[in-house]
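anyone else get weird line breaks when pasting these?? whatever heres mine. first is seq + tokens for prot A
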Amino acid sequence: MDHKDEISKSIGAHNDNFRVAKQRSLDLKLIRPILYHLYTVWLFTYSDLKTILMPSVAFGILSALSGPVLDVETGDAFHILDRSWIFLIWGWINLLLLCLNNQRQPDAIREDSLNKSWRPLPSQRMAAHQAYRLMLATFPVIYIISWHLDCTLQTLTLTLLNFSYNDWGGADHPVARNLINACGFICYASAALDIVAGSPRTFMQPTTLHWLAIIAAVVFSTIHIQDLRDQAGDRLRGRPTIPLLVGDALGRWTIVIPIAFWSLACPRYWQLGWSGYVLLVAIGVAIVGRTLWKRGVEDDRRTFKLWSAWLVAVYTLPLMKRWQWV
């Protein structure tokens, strides 16, 4: 009897293990497609996270911490950092809309097949018509979130800039391209400040508006540094960027001169002491040197990342001014 009980227990345990293994297998079958599609969506935005989203959240945090320098009323540092996650959600969904519309274009797919073959469309993780449907489905989501956060103005402006750039030919004119990019950066920056500060229309303060106008000029005059790395793809799609129009050598000078100017002019605007120049000038010198003497595609890609760090250094200046008051 005991022997039969042992056999029955052994068979029961085996059946239990089989059911557990089967359930795990079913769970994996359900989870893997979900993870696959989430990763696909993430890939649309991956290359722009470091250049658009992260500098923007840095602007929001640094500007909110600047307080009276920008005529901003905010809570303590923990409140500011806590609300930065809300902006990251808003900013990422807006960025996804931009990337979906941009990367679904036939010319963009051809260019990405050369420069960024890992993106969802050239790698065939998603079809262009599926990207279009995802874009349409995302619009009501971001507008509901924007209405709740009182950032509808920035979202509406970003939508107009999105279509101007991708559908109405703005990307094919160098000046319009830089202008659209500059306006887009300001939309992200102003929304970041509003959301992080927890107060709508915070960016409408005169001092803040003046500073945002200077940042727009900074971006407008230097953003084509991103075109140095993409010359092969831009040439393939026939896009007339500044480096292709005036030549690589002269195109680099149209970048380094504004970089050098703003590295000195921005600390001067805030009337900072020598310590306010150190970080910005150091990064600016590195960008100038790399732009002129490091001319490979990978070198230009790294220089563009350094430009993002330089822009964040620009964003720190009002906070340095506040520290100077202490």
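and prot B, same format (seq, then tokens)
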Amino acid sequence: MAASDMQEVPFVKQLAANDRPTRDAAVSSLRTFLSGRRQLSSLDLLKLWKGLFFCVWMSDRPRTQQRLIVDLAGLVEVLPDQNALPFLEAFWTTIAREWTGIDALRMDKFLLLVRSYLRASFCYLAERNWDVKTVEDYANILSAIPLSIADAKIPNGLRYHVIDIFVDELDASDQPRKSTIDLGLVLRPLRELASKSPTKSVRLRVKEALADERLIDWNEKTRGDIGVVEPDVGEVDEWNGFE
């Protein structure tokens, strides 16, 4: 489907409507639309996510927001495999681009959106038995966008949020601990940030996340096996001014 065709799909424009019934109907139509599509271009998906972003932006009242976010996160489960990771990449690209423009009154619902999508993405991987190639491809997306080491355009606020919720949502997606998850591969974006980020506060935040006791549970792994990094006492005590 060409990008111009995507713009002509009626419900795409309705995603940012002011009234809830119209938005809800548009999300329902979108599930049907996405589940039947064989392939969508990256431009199609970015245009779609622009509409979805403002759908959340316009949503008011906590219950309405929560319901909408749950519905949007549920889109991942209906996507054909060839569209799932590109759809997630378009999500992260859109969130990173728009993050600094989110005002304080709207930030909570976008924090929830990010949390919900991180969990949905891990659940997608879990449903595919943590296929190594799929996990690696998604890890590359995380490393390139929300957990990028060097891209100055990625807001640290988004980085911090993803770091803080990473283990929570991974834990929620694999509660039985019976999977064949390659935890080292899943944690690779965090481990790279912990060792290579030029920002000390980011390195410390990641090391705290990687010290989470829950990371020992998977497949009886030890900290060394999965690359868990203990906070460095010397680095914590050191202060070189504000970054």
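btw re prot B: Residues 23 and 226 are 43 Å apart (CA to CA). Residues 104-127 form the longest helix (24 residues).
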